[in-house]
């Protein structure tokens, strides 16, 4: 896992989060990173599953257009 700070991941950090201890901010940063990783995987699975409804001969072209 890359060690990006919470501010790097979110762009701007709400003031209440800045008040947290560094250890807690790191934990929150890891949690955000993991949540985004899981979300990305779920979106990829959904995209692949949606192609089941496209005729087989069109799938490569659709993948290219959609970026899957």
Textual characterization of the structure:
It is built from four helices and no strands. It is mostly helical and 68 residues long. The protein starts with 5 loop residues before the first helix and ends with a helix. The mean pLDDT is 86. Helix content is 68%, strand content 0%. The longest helix is centred in the middle third of the chain and has 29 residues, at 22-50. The chain has one domain.
Tell me the layout of helices and strands.
Blueprint lengths: L5 H5 L4 H4 L3 H29 L8 H8 L2
Topology order in helix (H) and strand (E) letters: HHHH
Q: What Rg do the Cα atoms give? A: 18 Å
Q: State the assembly state of the protein chains.
A: single chain
Kindly estimate the percentage of residues that lie in beta strands according to DSSP.
under 5%
Main attributes?
68 residues; 4 helices; 68% helix; mainly alpha
Summarize the structure.
The chain is mainly alpha-helical and 68 residues long.
């Amino acid at each position: 896992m890359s060690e990006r700070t919470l501010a790097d991941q979110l762009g701007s950090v709400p003031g209440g989060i800045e008040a947290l201890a560094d250890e807690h901010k790191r934990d929150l940063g890891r949690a955000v990173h993991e949540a985004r990783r899981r979300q990305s995987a779920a979106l990829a699975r959904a995209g692949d599953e949606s192609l089941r409804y496209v005729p087989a001969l069109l799938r490569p072209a659709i993948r290219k257009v959609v970026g899957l």
